[in-house]
Every structure is written in C-alpha cells, then in structure tokens.
Specification:
The protein has 7 helices and 5 strands. The chain is mainly alpha-helical. It has one domain. The strands form 2 sheets. Strands 3-4-5 form a 3-stranded antiparallel beta sheet. A hairpin with a 4-residue loop joins strand 4 and strand 5. Helix 2 packs parallel to helix 3 and helix 6 packs across helix 7. The longest helix has 29 residues.
Length: about 230
C-alpha cells in the first residue's frame, strides 16, 4: 500500500468534508395553539389550548462538525478499523500485504481510510441533498423496536426543514463510495466488483454502528435524542 498516497487521499477527504456546504437551517416556527371546544352544552363555551408537538430543529453547522468529528475520529471509527484489520490479518486479506505487525498496521490504516472516506461522503452528500446525517435514538421502548429503528436508520434520514424521515441517498451511496476509494491503495487486481462487494460489508458495519449508538454510547448524537421523531409524509 502506498502510504504517502493514502495520507494525501485522507487529507483531501477530510478537507472536502469540512468544506462541504452545510446549509444553515432555520428553526421551524411553532404551530399555533389549536382551540378545542370541550363541551358544546356548557355555557359559556370553554376553550382549551393544546400545545403543539416539539418542533424539529436541524443541527447547526457547529453541531454538524462535532458529529462529523465523532463519526470520523471517534471511538467507533477506530474500533471498527482495528476489528476489520484484525479479521483481515487472520484471513490474510489481501494476501499481497503479507503478515506481521507492519501488515496489521497497513490493514488497520486501510480500514480507517475507508471509514473516513465513507463519513466524508455521507456528510458531504447529506449537505448537498439537505439530509440530516445525525442519528436520532428511538423514543420507543423495548429491545426489538429499538433494534428495528437502528437498522432502518442506516438507510433513512431527516429531510428538509420539517425533519420528515425518508430514504437517504447518502446513507446508501456513502458505504460504497468509501470502499471504491480504497481501490486507490488496494492491489491492482482489485476492481469495481471488489469495491462493491466490500461496500456490502461496509453498509453492514454502519448498521452495527447504529446499534452501538442506540444502545451503548451515542456521543454528540444523543443531543438530539430528546427531539420527537418525525413521520414520513
């Protein structure tokens, strides 16, 4: 693996992520209180004001930067890189990198580069498509509903100013963008088909990461856990 070329590539990816256009969202205006008549037979008629549901608030540019830093350089990024590097070391994949501590370091660095490229792609595309890349913990109760929420969140995101939940293009494309980037430092025999195959594993890794955000430690993502999940239109 060309280490100098990889370092230049990582620097470009990091610069792209930090300079990606993050549209500054405005707070959605609170809904007007809705007067509801309690009883038509009462005289005089009494009215009750129902409070609106909590409004969705898009992360600020500063919050987005904190989220990116956590996802790109936080404990999960390093943990996944070390785990994947260890698995590749045990299976001697790719065999051209050989064995030993130096080869293990190359494999860990390679997987960290994939994670960095994936995160930079996801946040960059999310900014352009007005998607919210933050992970929102489920407000439901029970293990199975929370697992379902975490897995579905891998391919969904908040959209627009109202925060509706819908399919996420950045969530689908970024895992494959990360592994296709790795072809720049993988042995020459690796091609697009291998990049797509590795992208499948990368997508599964993001799902596992969401489970960790949901059940273990969410870092800055938990700052949004109090907000009520928005339903798709």
């Amino acid at each position: 693996m060309n280490r100098h070329g990889s370092a230049h590539l990582f620097a470009l990816l990091f610069g792209f992520a930090l300079s990606s256009p993050a549209a500054l969202a405005q707070l959605a205006p609170p809904a007007e209180p809705r007067p509801v008549e309690i009883a038509a037979t009462q005289a005089p008629t009494k009215l009750l004001n129902l409070s609106a549901s909590p409004v969705y608030v898009r992360p600020t540019p500063g919050q987005k930067l904190r989220l990116f830093e956590f996802d790109a350089f936080g404990p999960y990024a390093f943990g996944k890189a070390i785990f994947a590097g260890g698995f590749q070391q045990a299976t001697n994949s790719p065999p051209e990198w050989g064995g030993g501590i130096n080869a293990f370091g190359e494999r860990v660095a390679s997987n960290f580069g994939i994670q960095l490229a994936t995160t930079a792609s996801r946040y960059g595309m999310a900014a352009m498509l007005h998607e919210d890349a933050a992970y929102y913990r489920c407000e439901c109760s029970g293990i199975l509903p929370r697992i379902r929420h975490a897995l579905i969140s891998t391919l969904t995101a908040r959209h627009g100013e109202d925060g509706r939940t819908a399919f996420s293009i950045s969530g689908l494309v970024s895992p494959y963008a990360g592994t296709m980037t790795a072809l720049a430092w993988y042995p020459d025999r690796y091609g697009v088909k291998d990049g797509l195959r590795m992208g499948n594993y990368n997508l599964a890794g993001l799902a596992v990461g969401n489970l960790a955000l949901e059940f273990i430690y969410g870092g800055p993502h938990t700052m949004f856990s109090r907000l009520r999940s928005s339903k798709s239109d």
